Amino acid sequence: MTSGERNRKTTLRTRLRAARRSAVMPAMAAEVLIAVAAFGVSAGQAVCAYVAAPSEPGSVEMLDALRDRGLRVLLPVVVGSSLDWAAYDGELRPGAFGLHEPVGPLLGAAAVGSAALVLVPALAVDHSGVRLGKGGGYYDRALTLSTGPLVALVRDEEFVPSLPAEPHDVRMDAVLTPGSGLVRLPL
């Protein structure tokens, strides 16, 4: 990646974060159930999700909707420079970076590989499946262990034609937005 592309990523992150500060974030509870159905995920199977920060699409209602469908919801827990996973039982506690995390025992980094579907936070996703994250690389490292479909959740205006990509970027299989619903990638 050239320094110009790296600068473009930094500029995009700054612009997207600024736009999110004044935006109302969608709860995404109904939308994630559409993704569950579209990928044939059934009761008893695991879905990796995330606890949305105030500036991210998603909600605790989204997590509860998944649990109400009989799905085992696994949430990330930051451990050092990696993501571990724990089952969500309805209870959360403060964790690293001001994020909330489940209170259950850690299942190991490889637990993401047991998920029938992985819901991924993103600042933006492009038509080829490139995901722009927050820049820490936690998800790119964790998602290399995933075997299930990867679905990024973004606002409608954050689904864009193209983003700069690096070799380590893990491509998304689909994007989920409030207006367009589930869109399989690449287009």
From TrEMBL:
- Name any cofactors this protein relies on: Mg(2+)
What EC number(s) are associated with this protein in UniProt? Answer: 6.3.3.2
- Which is one Pfam family of this protein? 5-FTHF_cyc-lig
| InterPro entries given in the database record | FTHF_cligase (IPR002698), FTHF_cligase-like_sf (IPR024185), NagB/RpiA_transferase-like (IPR037171)
**What keyword terms does UniProt attach to this protein?**
ATP-binding, Ligase, Magnesium, Membrane, Metal-binding, Nucleotide-binding, Transmembrane, Transmembrane helix
Chain ranges passing through the membrane: 106-125
Q: Which GO terms describe its molecular function?
A: 5-formyltetrahydrofolate cyclo-ligase activity
Q: What class of enzyme is it?
A: ligase
Q: Enumerate the catalysed reactions.
A: (6S)-5-formyl-5,6,7,8-tetrahydrofolate + ATP = (6R)-5,10-methenyltetrahydrofolate + ADP + phosphate
Protein family membership? Belongs to the 5-formyltetrahydrofolate cyclo-ligase family.
**What is the protein name given in its UniProt record?**
5-formyltetrahydrofolate cyclo-ligase
From which organism does this entry originate? Saccharothrix hoggarensis
Q: What is the lineage of its organism?
A: Bacteria, Bacillati, Actinomycetota, Actinomycetes, Pseudonocardiales
